[in-house]
């Protein structure tokens, strides 16, 4: 729910909950950046939606980019680190799996629920990361430091068992992530109003990663 991630954003940015104007500014900025994108959103529009004077925004944030980073950087450092890295690593990589299939199913369900809860801010990341190299560098460092080595061990383990073909780890990671990202983007960004059977879609994604489009014999 919206209130959940807003509460977490407020905590991550150190915003005083008693400062209602700043809370409304953050909430309005998330809404506007998510709906229209950063470049197409003006501070006057944010102020109008927040119900404050435009000058009030600049009391807390020197520029519109500072306001963007007040949202995006906590998403990376507070949400990406605990949820995508720390919690994700604990929930996923500290468990043992008897098959790559079960590992995939756990990963997809975990990230699917994360996306369901935090998609407004994830959408801002998706929109803005290509245009802000510092954000891209931050994400790359998080992935390289916290995720890649753990995923590599999983890949090598199941390659030794004959459950995954002998491909370089980056290729296995790419072939695994692409359908998962496609599912999440289609479900929450491109066609959110469609009637979805989420469990069936997750299962179809698992089977596609494992077997592609070729009928099993």
From TrEMBL:
Pfam families per record: TetR_N (PF00440)
Keyword Transmembrane carried by entry: yes
Superkingdom as given in the UniProt entry: Bacteria
All residue ranges annotated as the HTH tetR-type domain in the record: 19-79
Portion annotated as DNA-binding: 42-61
SUPFAM superfamilies according to UniProt: Homeodomain-like, Tetracyclin repressor-like, C-terminal domain
PROSITE patterns listed in its UniProt record: HTH_TETR_2 (PS50977)
Keywords, in A-Z order: DNA-binding, Membrane, Transmembrane, Transmembrane helix
Residues passing through the membrane, by range: 67-85
Protein name: TetR/AcrR family transcriptional regulator
Lineage of the organism: Bacteria, Bacillati, Bacillota, Bacilli, Bacillales
